[in-house]
Amino acid sequence: MPQRVTVAKVADIPDGGSVVVNVLKRDVAVFNVNGSFFAVDDFCPHMGASLSGGFVEDGCVTCPWHFWRFRLSDGAWADNPKQKIGAYPIHVVGDDVQLELPDLPVV
């Protein structure tokens, strides 16, 4: 069963807002879009900009530096869906926003 980690309280991320959390040594941007929460890597692969500061519209976050757009639902680049950033399932449990951790290999 996948593990979850609480990354914020619902009240910490207002509608239209975002926060950056560090999970497993990775910065993840968590967005609140009309009461639905999404989590993607906080890193544009083009030039490394923080996506948490980007503009969200039509289910995509737009990189604030060079306007690359990534779908919040699956991390796919809107103009070339073969390229993706990490996207993570989010669950709201009571007042907690929880990120589902990716399965890690057993070592």
From TrEMBL:
Regions that span the bilayer: none
Signal peptide: none
Coiled coil residues, start to end: none
Origin superkingdom: Bacteria
Any one GO molecular function term: 2 iron, 2 sulfur cluster binding
Pfam hit, one: Rieske
InterPro entries from the UniProt entry: Rieske_2Fe-2S (IPR017941), Rieske_2Fe-2S_sf (IPR036922)
Record carries keyword Repeat: no
UniProt xrefs under PROSITE patterns: RIESKE
Keywords of this entry: 2Fe-2S, Iron, Iron-sulfur, Metal-binding
Domain Rieske positions: 5-99
Protein name (record): Rieske domain-containing protein
Organism, scientific name: Gemmata massiliana
